[in-house]
Design goal:
The protein is mainly alpha-helical and 169 residues long. It has a single domain, classed as Butyryl-CoA Dehydrogenase, subunit A, domain 3. It has helices at residues 2-17, 24-30, 36-44, 54-82, 86-116, 120-139, 148-166. The structure holds 2-acetamido-2-deoxy-beta-D-glucopyranose (NAG). This is Pectinesterase inhibitor domain-containing protein.
């Protein structure tokens, strides 16, 4: 009895010490994107990546972009509540148009649909458009944007997604 408890403890310790290797497909895929570290970090934070094919990895990226887009819209709406400067307010409202009407309601759903139906060309276009919209939002501010890191993160993720999707063409 005592020895089996001991054995279980030893097994428990060794199991927690096993390092699961980064999946080869994730590594190989991310090497062909413009941002290896962001790509690996993003894919490995979603359990679906461990048994996904390249199209599945692209879907994980698109879902991540969607979550970041929603977080960006939240931040914009907070800022709209506190910003007094009319130029900044106008730029923020323009960004809502870009992120809500374009990225969230058009680009990402069409990219996802295209991945599901096996038409990667349209998925590539959706993610490229989304990257351009994040960049346009950033350029809408004269001087410093209050949401630079949001815009940059969305844009970077879109470019990684687009590169993954190009592997499917
Ligand atoms: C942008 O990405 C960086 C690096 O992953 C992270 O540290 C930062 O918190 C992100 N910013 C936002 C606003 O999500």
């Amino acid at each position: 009895m005592r020895s089996s408890v001991f054995l279980l403890c030893v097994m428990g310790i060794s199991l927690t010490q096993i390092e699961f290797p980064t999946s080869d497909l994730v590594k190989q895929t991310c090497k062909r994107t413009p941002n290896y570290d962001l790509c690996v970090k993003t894919l490995l934070s979603d359990p679906r990546s461990s048994h996904a094919d390249v199209a599945g990895l692209a879907m994980v990226m698109v879902d991540t972009i969607k979550a970041k887009t929603i977080a960006t819209l939240h931040r914009i709406s907070e800022l709209l509540g506190t910003t007094r400067d009319p130029k900044t307010k106008a730029a923020l409202r323009g960004c809502v148009e870009l992120y809500d009407n374009a990225v969230l309601k058009a680009d990402l759903p069409s990219a996802m649909e295209a991945l599901k139906t096996g038409v990667p060309k349209f998925a590539e276009q959706g993610t490229n458009d989304a990257a351009n919209e994040a960049d346009s939002c950033e350029r809408a501010f004269s001087g410093v944007s209050p949401i630079t890191s949001f815009n940059r993160n969305v844009s970077d993720l879109c470019r990684v997604a687009s590169a993954i999707i190009r592997l499917l063409l």
